[in-house]
Design a protein that fits this description.
33% of the residues lie in helices and 21% in strands. It contains eleven helices and 16 strands. Strands 7-6-12-13-14-11-15 form a seven-stranded mixed β-sheet. The protein has a five-stranded parallel β-sheet with strand order 9-2-1-10-16, with helices on one face. A two-stranded antiparallel sheet has the order 3-4. It is globular, with a radius of gyration of 22 Å. The chain starts with a strand and ends with a helix. Bound molecules: uridine-5'-diphosphate (UDP).
Length: 374
Amino acid sequence: MSSKYDYLIVGSGLFGATFAREMTDAGYRCLVIDKRDHIGGNVYSEKRNGIDVHVYGAHIFHTSNDRIWNYVNRFATFNNYINKPKVRFGDNIYSFPINLMTLHQLWGVTTPAEAEEKLKEVRVPCENPDNLEDWILSQVGREVYETFVKGYTMKQWQRDPKELPASIIKRLPIRLTFDENYFFDKYQGIPVEGYTSMVKNMLEGIEVRTGIDYFTDRDSLDSLANTTVFTGKIDEYYGFRFGELEYRTLRFEHEEIDGDFQGNAVVNYTHPEVPFTRILEHKHFQPQTASKIPNTIVTREYSDEYKRGKTPYYPINNDKNTKMYKKYEVLARREEGVIFGGRLAEYKYYDMHQVIGSALMKSRKELEKRANDS
Ligand code: UDP
């Protein structure tokens, strides 16, 4: 018990930052390390010529959980951004996610009843639509599938939509109203000062060392603390002994130009022949200030197969990977003095609010355990 710290927290993303905050506030000594030269993991954003750039892709905070919303509002003021992406297919622009305006633009229907009539004609019935393609065909038919989903999904996952679980697309609403909000949640927004400022506030008063790779000096880093909180890749933690978990990675092309490029923060390119999946225009993530900024920064986002050394973004939760992950999870559960958490350590397609919720829960459990032990 002579260690300098109570917790060594590997990774300064939302899991690590939340856990560190909670344990520090409870009186424990934390050291946070990160292999990158900055804090925040993939929510990291940075100001470039007056524009806060989401360096690792669009991050829009949304939750229906009062506790989590109040929690993040302790560290940042959120703006009133509501995600209403558009779809570009060929020369046409459509409202998205699929709503009455989308179906009006596609078919000319003007009321919910007319839209329902048309959908009845085009739906492709399927008894057990458990894959992505069958599910979406059973909801909206082939034309909608081919215009909005097929090309985008194949680019995003480089897999046939028939081989993907329907759960991937069930994240998206389909509405027969003019509501264009991408999310169902009660609260939504983006920190006015950017995510990096939010994470910095979360880590205030906590020792943080960036540019430190846990795996190059594992034993001596572990020895600094009684407990390690690991938020990196679980397969790497165990030396890939059961094989490598698969991910999708992303590649970004950032460009700064004059004016306003697309009049919206996110435009999805669903045509299979356009190589990128979407274009982000960062200034529109801050609607209050966008029109005052004369320049603009746009990011073309490409999806790619993950290889070691690249940034893992999306876990591919198919049967093979799920089985492999379960084996790692058994080891993790038995591990003494190590807590695993976050998208990479739990191999889960977590949203930001879910990561924070999970870190709050695990830190609370840890505090309960300590209270019982003493
Ligand atoms: N999707 C689609 N067309 C779109 C946007 C999304 O078909 O224009 C599908 C695609 O399969 C994607 C899934 O919906 O993987 C989930 O999209 P979401 O926007 O939630 O993905 P994320 O923003 O997390 O990349």
